[in-house]
What does this fold into?
Amino acid sequence: MNQDTQELFHNFTAVIRELAVLSGDIATVEERKAEAAVQKRHQLFDGFIQKEQAQILKLRGLEQRRIRMAKELGWESLTFRQILEKAEPEQKESLSPLFAELEQNLKRLGQSRQSAERIIKVRIREIETAISRTQGGSYDNGGSAGPNAPMHNKMKDTYV
It folds into this structure.
């Protein structure tokens, strides 16, 4: 491997390492967001969302760098497994643990995001229900007035 390719490969592994760390960091924020939702500490969400937005911007930049470097290394459009198959033995030795860490953190991120999403949807439904009770009832999913709806909600356009 020539000097330029070695340097490019080194930079590629650094980007993969950063992606692995960043995906773990985003997963941690998702887990904290889910925990805050469970504890009904909704005031913490703005901070989590701002942090996530910054992390996602960084993630996009890293992904663009990874794609560019992969192309320069001749690995354009290859999956991590395909890269390992195509890589030289010493490259494989460096990449294998990085890809495993990245894969593990991405799975964790997916699971924590799904958990946070489910919990948040439950909390939103609870808030909607509480709001509808304070407003004296509401309509059901079919559009009919609920049993606790005010009388003017139960009136229908009929002729006598």
